[in-house]
Amino acid sequence: xxxxxxxxxxxxxAREMHKQTFPDDVWVGDDHDYWFAIDESGRxxxxxxxxxxxxxxxxxLSRCGVLREAVGCQLQSRLIRCRVAWxxxxxxxxxxxxxxxxxxxxxxxxxxxxxxxxxxxxxxxLMEVFHMYVKMxxxxxxxxxxxxxxxxxxxxNAR
Length: 159
Ligand SMILES: CC(C)(COP(=O)(O)OP(=O)(O)OC[C@H]1O[C@@H](n2cnc3c(N)ncnc32)[C@H](O)[C@@H]1OP(=O)(O)O)[C@@H](O)C(=O)NCCC(=O)NCCS
Prior knowledge:
The chain has helices at residues 11-21, 75-89, 104-112, 146-157; strands spanning 4-8, 33-38, 44-53, 58-66, 94-100, 116-118, 130-136. It is of the alpha+beta class. A 7-stranded mixed beta sheet has the order 1-2-3-4-5-7-6, with helices on both faces. It starts with a strand and ends with a helix. The relative contact order is 0.16. It binds coenzyme A.
């Protein structure tokens, strides 16, 4: 089966996929951007979301969910790559996200995509339940205290 990745404004589709892949989580938010993996019959089998936070000039990868029948097809990797490419295009300096500590598929896919673990400084307790990751996009890598702002966003979203 071949899949294509599309960026879409269709919040209703995103809500539906979110409900199916994150049944216990609250809706991620209408202000995020959304991407879908579409199969050859035109059906969405995975989705991902991201949001740009101007205060830290960073893009936060907020969700990625793959329907059971499409797991194992590297869709999360593809959805990570297209969101990173989007982050570059809009001029973000870095991309950040988090996983629960035992979400091995996501950990593998993020490290493969060039993300690195980030040890929180202002929110150390985050580490008890989550791993935070950062991928630098700016050449200098000089983001200073903006990573702390990103930590605050993770802390807020991980509640
Ligand atoms: C997490 C999720 C997005 C991954 O979907 P996916 O794109 O199908 O992932 P894949 O199976 O293609 O890739 C996972 C990789 O991790 C590897 N992996 C999985 N569990 C592993 C483990 N315990 N140890 C080592 N590697 C592991 C897989 O072998 C695979 O690598 P491969 O391509 O070399 O075989 C999907 O399972 C999902 O939607 N889960 C529910 C929602 C969720 O947890 N989302 C992520 C948080 S935002």
